[in-house]
Amino acid sequence: MDFLQNHIEALIFCSPSPAKVVELITCLSEMFNADVPEEDVMSAIHRIEEKFMADEYSFQLSKSAGGYQFLTKPAYQASIGIMLKQQSKKRLSTSAMETLSIIAYKQPISKSEVENIRGVNCDYAVQRLLDKGLIELQGKAETVGRPILYGTSPKFMEYFGISELNELPTPKDFTEEVNTIGETPENQ
After folding, report:
1. CATH code for position 56
2. pTM score, whole prediction
3. Which of 32, 117, 120, 182 has the smallest CB count inside 10 Å?
C-alpha cells in the first residue's frame, strides 16, 4: 500500500477545484511535518493515473486548469446526463416553494386562499406540486362553491426530511413597529 499515493488520491478527490501540485506538496508537508519532494508527488500522481485507467473504474484522473481532478469517463456521459436531468426535475421553482410553504403552514387551504396570500395565480404551481406528489387533495370546503382543499402529503415529509408538521420552522411573529417615523414611544 502506497501511503503517499493514498493521501494524494484523497486530497485530489476532496478538492473542489483541480488540485495543483504546489497545493498538494504544501498540504502533505504540513501533515507529515517534513518536506515532500515534488518528484515523489509526481510519481504518485502518475501511479494514480494508471490505476484509474483500468476499465473497472468509472472515473479517471485528469489534468486541467493547472491541477488534477477526478472526472467520470466519457463512456458514462449518457447515464450521468439522465440522472442530472431527473434531479433538475426534482427541484422546485421559487413560485412552487412559496405555494408549498403556504399550503404547509395553512393547510387545509383552497387554491383561491393561496392566491389571495401570494397575490398571483397559482394554477401551475399547484398542478406541479400535485404532479410531484408533495401536496394532495384533502376534501372540499363548506363555503360557497365548495372549493377543493389542499394539504401536504407523506412525500412532502420525505422530501424535506421531517416526520411531523410540527417540525417545520416556526414562522416569526409579525408585530407592529415599536416606533414609527415622527412618533415617540409611549414609554419614554
Report:
1. 1.10.10.10
2. 0.50
3. 182
